[in-house]
Amino acid sequence: MNAVPADASVIDQRLQLATGFHASERDWVVERLAALGSRLRSYRDDQVELEIAVKDREGVDQRVVLQCWLSSAHRLHLIATSAEQELSTALNEVRDELIRQVDDAKTRTEPRSNRALRSSPPDPRSDQRAT
Q: What is the pTM of this model?
């Protein structure tokens, strides 16, 4: 079964493979990053850009970099990196870090237990002066 999981569709559509990855590895990379898709579903497809690169592949200083640009009220640039030598482990690490960053970004922009937002608006009649 070679079908792309539903959570991976946004990843598949928006991911750009940069330095160090071959086009033939795209499906494998998308499958590894699929868990990130559920976090990005709340954004429209045109609000998400992803790019992954590996520098010094299989070298001593190998580094995987996953970048995400989110455009909603303002443009966020999130970056996750890993220096793991095993590529699959590095992909899992950058995926998990980016999930954490996306969750943090959503938390910062959503209203929390804000008393002003919970309370009802003041009654306009109470503002009238007694005569």
A: 0.76
